[in-house]
Predict the 3D structure of the following.
Amino acid sequence: MRIHLGSDHAGFALKEQVKTLLEERGHDVTDVGTDGEESVDYPDYAGIVGHAVAEGTADVGVLVCGTGLGMAIAANKVRGVRAVQAYDPEMARMARLHNDANVLTLPGRHISAEQAAPVIDAFLGTTFEGGRHQRRVDKIEALADDDE
Ligand code: RB5
């Protein structure tokens, strides 16, 4: 898969380990930064990855910040992005299966690379079920139209 990967400073260490894991799995990874522990603003990276996913440059995105929460909030502001924070493989699986999530966010200050690996594998290894869930995802996307 073509995966855009990003983090802020709090997610940098885990992001580097996730990059290695994704490359070992054979994915085409684009690392959008950040490149170190210096403080940066997570919405900047959520925006880059979110737009890549929304525009189809990436199949999915993976974002890491301290909690994964700010990244999810920010990425979900990009139309077409369905970002979820998960640190449990079953939640990651269900987010793909029922919600057609296209961005996974991870809490870099709260899980290890060993804990993150099965979450990432569950997310990337599950496809959207469609059917009645497509109708619901369409309704999620239609909510953005209400604001225009
Ligand atoms: C940075 O201190 C921290 O706020 C950020 O990484 C993230 O956890 C925000 O949601």
